Amino acid sequence: MEDTSNIQQKIPVSIQDELRNSYLDYAMSVIIGRAIPDVRDGLKPVHRRILYSMHEQKIGPSGSHKKCARVVGDVLGKYHPHGDTAVYDALVRMAQPFSLRYPLIDGQGNFGSIDGDSAAAMRYTESRLARIATDLLTDIEKETVDFAPNYDDSELEPTVLPAKFPQLLVNGSGGIAVGMATNIPPHNLGEIIDATVLLIRNPDATVDDLMQHVKGPDFPTGGLIYGKSGIDQAYRTGRGTIVMRGRCSVEKTLKGDREQILITEIPYQVNKAKLVAKIAECIKEKRIEGIAEVRDESDREGMRVVIELKKDVFPQVVQNQLYRLTDLQSTFGIINLSIANGRPAVLGLKETLAHFVEHRREVVTRRTRYELRQAEAQRELVEGLGMATTDVDIIVSTIRTSQDPEEARDRLQKLPLRGFGDFLRRAGRPEPECVEGDGRGDYFLSERQAKAILEMRLSRLTGLEREKLAREYGELVEEIARLNGILADEGKLMDVIVGELEDIKSRYNDVRRTEIVPTEAEIQVEDLIQEEDMVVTISHLGYVKRTPVTTYRAQRRGGKGMVGMEARDEDWVSQLFVASTHSYVFFFSDKGKVYVKKVYEIPSAARNAKGRAIVNFVGMEQGEKIAAITPVARIETGWFVVTLTRRGQIKKTALEEYENFRDKGIIGVRIEEDDQLLSAAITDGSREFLIATHKGMSIRFAEEEVRPTGRATMGVKGVELNEGDFVVGLCVTDGGRDRVLAVCERGYGKRTPLDEFRLQSRGGKGVILIDASERNGPVIGVAMVSPADQIMLVTDRGQTLRTKASEIRETGRNAQGVRLMNVDGDERVVAIEAFAEAEEGTVPPPPLETTGTDGTNDTNGASHDGTNGVAE
Question: For the purposes of burial, counting CB atoms within 10 Å of the CB of 846, is it exposed (0-12), middle (13-18) or buried (19 or more)?
Fold first, then answer.
């Protein structure tokens, strides 16, 4: 028969199962043994091994510093068989005051800097335990924690440290494991201890109760935290995101003619050198404007980064740009993941503190039991020695008559002693009713007591030593009673924990470094843009740009003007308006859709530049064209969007219906196939409208005659048109302007009092606006003006003229008007704009009565060839 005893049996295993099981073993090894901290002491294995190794070597705060290479070597040889770089890097981080809120290592030498400088080699640096680290290790020799064999079973190492304070929350932690990561911010020790004490006193305390003490993270680098929602979410769920900002202030330069921004604190884990380099890069690329110089003046006294500003620059705008474009503002994603009960878990604030309290309960209980055993053992010895000093004659006689120590020990154990009561009285303890022995007051020594008597020196038999033993015995009895009381009463046990926590707080607590700003600080793009007035220009072929209004200098009526855009034969400026950089711009397409942008989003360009194609800028669908554009100061209740078509259809819709706009546009108005959108304006529901036509007719009627309808409606008839005529403009009265300015394409125009245009019912043919003679040409636009207004005219060749409205002569409705601008040959005026002059050299647009504070006005319109501009 064949012998098969030595044949190995092959068991088929699915490769999928084997890979899954092996990878899970590897993943758990990384999670438990490397990357994730324990919730009880807040340490990863490498940190725990470093601290325990230094404790073993007695490299404590009261001793001298020792070479880091010595510490790293001991850790590697005994406990952590990985790379020396990993151990040294962990040691270095525990010594960095900008990494840990309360450093656990007291380093001597170069341990790196906040600029990202590396620490010196371990052979050059020295270290010792910081005083606070000893409170993580206190009582470790009293069997307070479990020990496990090291990697080669040659040593024992603690599986956790006793940790007198919640180290996990106090110093935080960070690590990436397999399939999970942890990122726990540091906190103020005093706040965390107060919350822990509250939870001990009231286990039913809520997260809200705990947050009365724990305001939020407290970073070693200071700075500010904006908003409490992320903190609240993290403390409740274990996950949340907080916004951090550096601390900035503004002061005058030494010369006093400029201002400068000082950065004295930066967000946690931000590299200062990289931050300064990033600011310099943004200045070079002109992403941040207004900075003259940036320099780092930090020294041993503290951080000081100086950002010197140019003249007439608003510091807040530059500061917001720094927050937006650099790490001066950054986020901290809280993931409170730790090892709890041997498993990784994401814990909230209360759960984390509860695990620590349970750990301390176990540590204090085990320590108390250990101390009780030690006290009882010591009491036993003191009792025996006390009996020896009381019955000294019989003890000495027994020892002298014995042949050897073994016989003496045996005889002493069998020797009845009668002086136990005397010893108790000398110790100040009451004599028990029945002492150990035969019931007649005899006392028999134990083996340990007999051995201790044999080893006792004769000097212990003196009277002074007898009193000392009696006093020690009394103290031991009281200590044993105290320890038994702690073990028997949960309240006393928790009082011990609280007392130790309060002692830690009294020794290490300091003031909070990170300020928490209650309001959320979402930096809007407007915060990065200095508010100023812009001339927005749209060309006939659909190019848009914005230019500061101060670029255009004022001229007298009848001048030639200046180039506003380099126009080609096939393109010209067809529309312009003046608006604040923070205003909205509604782009109405010929299909009735509305696209909404901010003025600051419009590409900035020089006065004579072409600009950018609106179709690409707005993101319109293929085949769509811009039909009307109007600026809007802000979207609010009580205002309406009024649209007018080329065929005279007028519609009014509440402005708030356009509030939920999308990048792909929303429905704005319904247009008939043979019609096209001409103009749009913003009103408050109590205005009057004046509609002008190509052939010089006009109609004035009250806004109440146009009832509000939804965005997807067509509207009602505003004017009855003659054959071949069409609408060219819409005026909305605003009370401050009582003159109607009409402009014809040959450069002629006139001002006419509004009262000369009688109020009619909507839908009529109206009255004459201006004589659209061959000299004047047809009407291209109208506007409501006051004598103080400025007028800007634009031709199809890009020429612009800015003049005062007061220089335009007033005439009746039937008059031909005066020359406003010289035009050559077939050149023609295509757009007008009226705006109020605030001061010499700057021309902000006239305000609408209740639009807000940005000085914009949505009243007047001008158009040509199916497009129209509505002044704000």
Answer: buried
Active centre residues (catalytic): 124
Q: How far is CA 391 from CA 397, 439, 444, 756, in A?
A: 10, 18, 12, 134
* Average pLDDT over every residue of 167-185: 92
Do residue 451 and residue 542 come from a single domain? Answer: no
| Residue 733 domain flag | yes
**Torsion sign (Cα): 562, 567, 570, 571:** negative
Q: How far is CA 496 from the centre of its chain?
A: 39
C-alpha torsion sign, points 263, 265, 267, 270: positive
Residue 464's CB: how many other CB atoms inside 10 A? Answer: 9
User: Do residues 639 and 653 touch, judged by C-beta distance below 8 A?
Assistant: no
Which residues touch 840 (CB under 8 Å, ≥6 apart)? Answer: none
User: Which residues make Cβ contacts (< 8 Å) with residue 805, sequence separation at least 6?
Assistant: 739, 741, 751, 785, 786, 787, 788, 789, 790, 791, 834
Which domain, by its residues, includes 300?
247-327
- The CATH number of the domain holding residue 389 is 1.10.268.10
Task: Please choose, from the candidates 229, 260, 258, the residue with its C-alpha nearest in 3D space to the C-alpha of residue 243.
Answer: 229
Shared-domain flag, residues 855 and 763 = yes
Q: Does 381 lie in the same domain as 299?
A: no
Which of 140, 162, 184 corresponds to the end of one domain? 162
pTM: 0.64
342-397 pLDDT per residue, tens = 899 999 999 999 999 999 999 999 999 999 999 999 888 888 887 777 777 788 88
Three-class DSSP category at 533: strand
pLDDT reported for residue 862: 33
Please, are residues 200 and 304 in contact by the beta-carbon 8 Å criterion? no
Give the Cα separation of 37 and 31 in Å (integer). Answer: 9
Q: If you count DSSP H runs as helices and E runs as strands, how many of each does the chain have, helices first?
A: 20, 43
**CA–CA dist 245, 261 (Å, integer):** 14
- Specify whether the CB–CB gap between 445 and 436 falls below 8 A: no
Is 386 found in the same domain as 301?
Answer: no
Q: What is the pLDDT of residues 833-871, one digit of tens each?
A: 776 654 433 333 333 332 222 333 333 333 333 333 322
Indicate the number of domains in the chain: 4
Last residue of a domain, one of 479, 498, 517: 498
Q: 322 and 366: one domain? A: no
Counting beta carbons within 10 angstroms of the beta carbon of residue 630, is it exposed (0 to 12), middle (13 to 18) or buried (19 or more)?
Answer: buried
Residues 393, 276 share a domain: no
* Beta pairing partners, 759: 700
Pair 388, 461 in one domain: yes
Q: Residue 659 falls within a domain, yes or no? A: yes
From CA 489, how far away is CA 471, in angstroms rounded?
27
The encoded tokens of residue 595 equal 């696209």
The reply to whether 308 and 262 lie within a common domain is yes
Q: Decide: 379 and 424 in contact? Cβ < 8 Å.
A: no
For residue 385, being part of any structural domain is answered with yes
Q: Within a domain: residue 798? A: yes
